[in-house]
């Protein structure tokens, strides 16, 4: 007699996926199910697998050989096209877990939250949702965004769960974010992009300001605007402050003037002043592309101090390659710009020496009105990662243009959406 395979999605997620020869293909990130009026139980159609390059692909359950021994074994035939959720599909971790439902208990219905979903494989090898692990409401209001979990928990047949298919209340995203906590902002942005607008807003609400700022910078413009507009004004202002100034200015420029002003009024005065200045420049000029927060130091600072500054984890890689040296004040617009020091030069000099003695003065600074063509030619000619933007009249450093911001403007406007287009060249590869 065949043994029935049962597993909860909470255990299945994060398991490694292997081919028949033992080669690791990736790990499980989510489970895809579909609902039907002809079936009482949702059908499990496949797994979302994260492969080596943080790319999420779809593996049908028909290619899953077993889910045993803390691993998932597949046939080895994998479609490498990026996973795209269809309209009739539901992601268990992203959309069902932490959903508010009513559960039939002893002839009565009680309010509960789904904590986990149980799957089962039938004799014909088809998989379906059979159980739900739920937490019963104990009284008072059930805050969907609270991380505190109280109340009786129990496992119930999926047939006794109402409202599983339709969302009727706000839903926490804490468990979803726990699953994706190790993701880089660009990868998490792809996950959020694929969610329905309501769920996307709930995930945004659950992220802290810094993490949300990093994710927004990686999203397409439409998603950026949707999320920012959906936040309370005070929260939106805090997120803008946490973003890179040039990215924040680009996002603000997409909003109506009255909304821009409302957000700027709520921001820190100095942060708002930087953004107001950036908004005065055309998008395709050095002024419009620059960040107002490059690494800036005075000429008397030591090489050891400079290395400590560029070593900060929160500093973007492109900004960490160059220290711009100026007279005080050392916040943009600074005192007179003196020159720049590259990180490789810092690594070759004695730590106690002042950075003012190793300045690179050969690169002519950009003016704020320098065109995109001028910027790209200078970056290419001098093999630079970042260039200073200096005011013609005062000689003050206004900011710096980095190569990543230039690429963002050279690429097509919808390049972030293109990351989601299927790979047509090699739709399938066979492992093993």
TrEMBL record:
The record ties this protein, via InterPro entries, to: CBS_dom, CBS_dom_sf, Mg_transptr_MgtE_intracell_dom, MgtE_N_sf, MgtE_transporter, PRC-brl_dom, PRC_barrel-like_sf, SH3_actinomycetes
GO annotations of cellular component type: membrane
Keywords for the protein's UniProt record, in alphabetical order: CBS domain
Tree of life domain:
Bacteria
Q: Name one GO molecular function term.
A: magnesium ion transmembrane transporter activity
Entry protein name:
Putative magnesium (Mg2+) transporter
**Residues in domain CBS?**
359-419
Q: Per the database entry, which stretches of residues form a coiled coil?
A: none
